[in-house]
Amino acid sequence: MALEEFYGNEVMTQKGYECLNLMANRIATVFASLLEFPSVRYRAAKSLDLNTMTTISDIIPTKLAATVWDCLMKYKSLKNFNFPQTETCELLILDRSIDQIAPIIHEWTYDAMCHDLLNMDGSKYVQEVASKTGGVPEKKEVLLEEHDPVWLELCHAHIADASERLHDKMSSFVSTNKAAQMRSRGGGELSDRDIQKIAQALQQYSEQIDKLSLHIDIAAKINKIIRELGLKQVGQLEQDLVFGDAGTKEVINFLKTKPDAPCEIKLRLLMIYVATHPEKFRSDKLAKLMELARLSSDDMKAVYNMKFLEGSSEAKKKSSCVFSLKMDARKELIEKLSNNELPKNDYPCINDSSPTFHERAKSKSAEMVEPPPAHSVRSRRTPTWARPRDSEDGNSSDHSILRHASSDIKKIGRRIFVFIIGGATRSEYLYVNTENLTLHSLQLRVCHKLTTKLKREVVLCSSSLDDPQQFITKLKLMTANDISLDNLGI
């Protein structure tokens, strides 16, 4: 609930305080369970110089860091509890403003597309299988989770890569499995020896063919939806907007030439547009675009509420084109954290005794001001929908190294934990559940490279794991007292 509780309000609500305290307690409980005592760093509000006013959302990382610290101090003071008395790891607290685009852009990994395009309930997928009696197809519920080796291998692969691998796997399976070979012969007469071989391979054959058939069916459905919705064209336009290669003209052209495109596609496109063109919040052009897109009043609210996720980093002010960043911001932050190079003014460490900090954090009022331009952490690269297998940006689907992380890495350097307030996306994280807090490994293409490069285990945590539809719903739930449909100019 962090997104809708912390963003869009001029003051922190009682529910917001309850959410923040619950989050802090769970974070501290995880560290207590791991017997880790972190150095707690956070994205500081630029208003801590007391000369600049800010939004309530801008100081949420500061408030969460202070509350986590208080919880950790309680564990540290307990007698007969083997909690470390000196720092053993590092925690960096950020928020969703570091990348507003990730939750709404179309991601092209197998996992992300399954949850985005198919009607899944969590990890539950309903498969239609042929009836044994030849009647209406039967429905079978399956879980797409780590116990499924095919899912485990392909979940972070690009959909085109996953489809190709599934085809190769089926071809290889038929050519090497004795039962499959016998079955593929058709009605030919089988010898007693053939029957014996089939019986020996039958159980393994049945399990493997079921798994492969399931994922071949899923991949076929996804590829059909991609073709029907024209998602390759949509994906290209989204990428061009993010990197400054497209603007208002291209969006208008899409809306005029694709008037029957699904409302969700047009909504997400306009949300990306306002995130990359925040000045449009203050013009009537956005209202006209939403009218052209025929968005409902509810969808308009989601578009306008994107303004509450605009960040406040000074780096964004210095960049002439913030969506053409040369480096992934999260990667850069983590590398600087590992090298002890994070600027202390922007990312203070609460472990450093500083009465001035505590006084400022408690006394600072949250007054609404106009935030600076939005921010994206996406580096310029081949569009995700067109990325080939084993691309150089590290987006390979083979995560065996991540899954079976060497204990030597943990011994070399202290763990790095990064917590993002406001939710994470499936393409960003692999996840496990610990102490009712969703803990995530940092997105595969970053974690593998950084863990190897830094010789330190990197773990990413978040307040929730959101699919695009869930994120949009949360945006609509935000309180937006200064937004009225009466002044949208429609």
From TrEMBL:
It comes from Artemisia annua (Sweet wormwood). This is Sec1/munc18-like (SM) proteins superfamily. The lineage of its organism: Eukaryota, Viridiplantae, Streptophyta, Embryophyta, Tracheophyta. GO terms for biological process: vesicle-mediated transport. It comes from the Eukaryota. Residues 360-400 are annotated as: Disordered. Belongs to the STXBP/unc-18/SEC1 family.
